[in-house]
Amino acid sequence: MRNRLLTLTLTFAALVPWSTAAAQQKVDIHRSCTPTVSVRLGGAMSSVKIIAWDRDSISLTGVLASGSKMDGGPYNVTGPVTGMKFFVEAIDETALLGNKLELRVPRNARVWIKAGSADIEASGVTGGLDLNIVGGSVRVNAKPRELIVESMDGSVTVSGSPGYARLKTATGDVTLQGNGEDVTITTVSGAIRVSEGTVERGRFESVTGPIVFTGDLPRRGDLRFDTHSGSIEVRMPRQASVEIDAATVTGTIENAWSNARPIAGREGRGMELGTSSGMGGARVLVRSFKGNVRLGTK
Which helix (H) or strand (E) holds 90? Predict the structure, then answer.
């Protein structure tokens, strides 16, 4: 293979030698980059690991199955790169399952991944993560400034403290274990679980999926829960400083957090509950159409 300059449309064959006749193709790409480099990786992959390190360089390693290929390269061809883009193709489902990659980037990098059914793991990134899958799973253990995850059927688990987070699924479950400054989680029929952390501003919405919140409430927090027919459960410390406004159209409200009892809703439909610790504090708004609401202690 002859040497040539790297360009945006450079094929994977120009980056590393490979043969479609081989049973497995090795991926081994290394380039110096800026600390805030942008990396885009998409296509037919079954596994992607994103690992942040304290180096101003990118490392993309792994294997591709026979019949797969990768296109892409850096945005600029001289000096430390500011961005890289790769796309993986596979001839069939069997080849896709054999495509497994590991991407190492500087901590402040921004990484964009788009795949079909894939398992994505990300750790240590403090820059930005934008992850999109159909099936499989997404697991993030990091403190990114910005975290965006979209999934159809795949589960999403976040352990860490994202500053800004938007997590969205259709049927996949979403679990947040950590802190968050501005968090929105939406799902159609998946379950939403939030625990072991403090959320300052949170929006949690489902159509039929249950929502369970057992996190901590900062004094100036603002949390909103909304569902059509899924259940909502909010558990708080007995001494939490909070004001709660809950209502359901045809569901029920159970309050085990305070002595306040729910009353009939407007026009005699459903139930409503307003209760407060008497010390101001965080605001919790709960709205449900048919789902049952439970307030409890932890």
Answer: none
d(CA 95, CA 65): 5
What span, in angstroms and rounded, lies between the C-alpha atoms of 284 and 289? 17
Mean pLDDT by groups of 10 residues along the chain of 298 residues:
34 40 80 96 97 97 93 79 94 91 98 96 98 97 97 96 96 95 97 92 97 90 96 91 93 93 80 83 94 94
pLDDT score for 267: 67
> Under 8 Å CB-to-CB from 39, ≥6 apart: which residues?
58, 83, 84, 85, 103, 105, 109, 110, 111, 112
**Is the pTM of the predicted complex or chain greater than 0.85?**
yes
Integer Rg of the chain from CA = 23
**What's the number of CA atoms in the CB half-sphere (13 Å) around residue 190?**
24
List the structure tokens of 88: 């993986």
Cα separation, 70 vs 103, whole angstroms: 14
Q: Tell me how far apart the alpha carbons of residues 263 and 78 are, in angstroms, rounded to a whole number.
A: 69
- Phi then psi for residue 198, to 5 deg, are -115, 125
| Alpha carbon distance 236, 231 (integer Å) | 17
In Å, what is the CA distance from 232 to each residue of 75, 192, 206, 261, 270? 47, 9, 10, 17, 15
Distances (CA, A) of 82 to 32, 79, 94, 184, 198: 9, 9, 34, 30, 35
Cα separations in angstroms, 205 against 157, 209, 224: 17, 9, 8
Could you tell me which of 278, 197, 194 has the C-alpha nearest to residue 232?
Answer: 194
Helices (H) then strands (E): counts for the chain = 2, 26
Tokens linked to 37: 């480099």
